[in-house]
Amino acid sequence: MSLSDSKNILVCVDAEQFLSNDTFNQACATALKQDAKLFITTIVDPKPYAPMSRFDSKIVERAGQQASETLQMYKQKAEKKGISDPETILDVGTPQVRITRHIAPNYNIDLIIAGETVGKRAERVLTGSISKGIAKRAACEVNIVKSTGEVVTKV
């Protein structure tokens, strides 16, 4: 499927660190150009919180609340850019798996846009880049926006 065929675009955001404006701007511009529906997602991965949950049983719940607030902020930004009715998706689990095996198929996503730096540096060392994991597993086109603003496409 080519970029011009995209009707359902998913942009991945991280609730704990703001992705580069280039990634979000790229997603919004593409959605507007293609007259596509924009979905904004973040995935709360409970694994990094496991050691702390012994001391704070509500830590994952708070992470979910923070993620929800982040999604609403991005939704408002998208609306200000002229995106009509952007939809937010909050999920829990391993980001690469939830995005490629659950969200993309359930929402008929045909283009995923993710930032190169999504995820924590220590986590990337252990599990690899989340964006690269999405690109490797996705059945649809994936655009990875590098920190330089360059877009790398995996079809």
UniProtKB/TrEMBL annotation:
InterPro entries: Rossmann-like_a/b/a_fold, UspA. SUPFAM superfamilies: Adenine nucleotide alpha hydrolases-like. It comes from the Bacteria. Residues 7-146 form the UspA domain. PANTHER family: STRESS RESPONSE PROTEIN NHAX (PTHR46268), UNIVERSAL STRESS PROTEIN UP12 (PTHR46268:SF6). Belongs to the universal stress protein A family. This is Universal stress protein. It comes from Salicibibacter halophilus.
